[in-house]
Amino acid sequence: MQNLASPPDLQWPRKLSEIPKAVFHREDVYEAELDRIFRGEEWHPLAHLAEIPAPGDYKTTHIGSSPVLVVHGSDGVVRTFENSCTHRGTQLATCPRGNAAKIECPYHRWNFSNTGELLGTPGRADFPKDFNPRDYALREVRSVIRSGLVFATYSATVPDIDEYLGSAAASVSQVLGEEPLELLGYQKVSFATNWKEYADNEGYHAPLLHSAFVMLRWKGGQGSQLMTDRAHKVIRTDLTVPPEGFLADHSLIDARDPNCSPQSVIVSLFPVTIILKHLDVISVRYAFPRSAHETEVHYAYFARADDSEELKRHRLRQSANLLGPSGLITLEDGAVFNRLHVGSRTSGSVEFQKGVTDAQAVPTDFSHTDEAGNLVRWEHYRKAMGFTR
Question: Is 90 exceeded by the pLDDT of residue 134?
C-alpha cells in the first residue's frame, strides 16, 4: 500500500445524504484527491485501441495531473509510460496523438524507443562511470486492456480490472464491443466546475433540464440503474424514435444500427469517465481535473470498423450534434456545471433527495431516474479520502 497524503481537516455530515460544499472548492481537498484518488486504488481509462491502432502510435493524456503516454510499441504491445524524461523530468511528447519510432527529449536529446528503452544519451563520455542506460528506461505505469480500452493505475494493490469493474463490466463490453472500433474524432471542452460536480450527474435531471427529452418523448422511458461496490454506475433507458416531423432533419435522431435496439446505456466509471451508447452514438468521455475549479473533457467518438461509410458518417453527425458539448441533448449541462460550482460557494451542505429512503444508510436499490445512486459514489469517495463523519 502506498503512502497517501493525510486527509484534510474537514467536517463530514453525519447524514449519508449530505455532502459538504467545501469539497468542491478547497485547494487542500483537491491536492489530496490527486494523491488519494487519482494516484490511489483506482483504474483510469486512458485510450481505446482505435486511437492508437498501428505500431508506433501514441496518445498523450493524464492520470489526474500526471502526464502519461499510451504507446503502441513496435513489438505490438501497448504500454503506458510517464510522459517525463528520466534525466531531468522534461515532458517528452506534446502532440495529442502521433506516431514515432523513437521518443526524444527536446532538452538534452536523450531518446527512447517506443517500447521504453533508453537508446541515446549525448555526452555520455562525461557521465559517471557506473551510468547504466537500463536504469533510465521510461517509467512504465501498470496498465491492462479490457473491451479495447486501456486502463492504467499507479496502485500496486488495486484489485484486478475484472473485479474492479464488477457488474459494470458487461455494460462496458456492450457499449464498446469486442470487435475493432474506428476513431471518428474528438470534441474537447473545459467546464468551469469541479470534477466531482461534473461526475455527479444522474437521471433525475434529464427530463427536467433537457427540453429535448420532452420534445423527443424520452421523458417516460423505462429503464434501470445499477451501482457497483466500487461506485461505478450504469443507467439504461429505452428510447422511442419519434415520428417524422419532430425535427427539420429527422436523420439526426434515426436509429440505423441494425444490431442494436434504440437505447441509452451510460456507464459512469469512478472517478470521472463516462462510456455511452445512445441511439447510434458510441462515445468515451475522458475527463481530467485541471484545478479545483476547472474540468477538461475530451469527447471521443467511434464507429464499428465494419460499418458502411454511410453509417460512419451518420454516427459522427449524431455524436457531435446530439451528445457533444453543444449537442441538442447536452447543451444545458455545461451551464449547469458552472452554476453548481458558483452556487456551492455558500455555507453548509448539499443534500440528495430523490430515491433516498433512509438518510442514515447507503442505498442499494433505485430507479433509473433517482439521484440516490450518487450516494454510493460519495461514500466511496469519503472513504478513499479518509474523511470521518
Answer: yes
Residue 217 pLDDT grade (very low, low, confident, very high; cuts 50, 70, 90): low
Cα–Cα distance, 273 to 62 (Å, whole number): 12
Give me the helices (H) in the chain, please.
27-33, 161-165, 169-176, 195-199, 206-209, 211-215, 309-323, 331-343, 374-385
pLDDT 10s digits, 364-382: 888 888 998 999 999 999 9
**Residue 231: Cβ within 10 Å count:** 24
C-alpha cell at 12: 463530514
Can you tell me the distance from the alpha carbon of 172 to that of 149, in angstroms, rounded to the nearest whole number? 9
Query: How far apart (Å, rounded) are the C-alpha atoms in residues 385 and 33?
Result: 7
Q: Judge contact between 327 and 320, C-beta under 8 A.
A: yes
Higher pLDDT, 250 or 301: 301
Residue with cell 427529452: 213
Report how many helices (DSSP H) and strands (DSSP E) the chain contains, helices first. 9, 19
Contacts of 156 (CB under 8 A, 6+ apart): 2, 142
Q: Across residues 297-312, what is the average pLDDT?
A: 96
Name residue 68's beta-bridge partners: 61, 82
Tell me the C-alpha distance between 140 and 118, whole Å: 13
User: Is 2 strand, coil or helix?
Assistant: coil
Looking at the DSSP bridge assignments, the partners of residue 75 are: none
CA distance 374 to 268: 11
Residue 288 corresponds to which amino acid?
F
- Average pLDDT of the chain? 93
- Give the number of other CB atoms < 10 A from CB of residue 125: 6
Indicate the pLDDT class of residue 1, thresholds 50, 70 and 90.
very low
**52: its cell numbers:** 492508437
Residue 155 vs residues 12, 141, 146, 151, 165: alpha-carbon distances, Å: 26, 9, 18, 12, 16
Contact by Cβ (8 Å): 22, 366: no
**Quick one: which of 13, 16, 32 has its CA closest to 385?**
32
- Alpha carbons 225 and 223: distance in angstroms, whole number: 7
Per-residue model confidence (pLDDT) at position 363 = 81
Question: What pLDDT is attached to residue 219?
Answer: 58
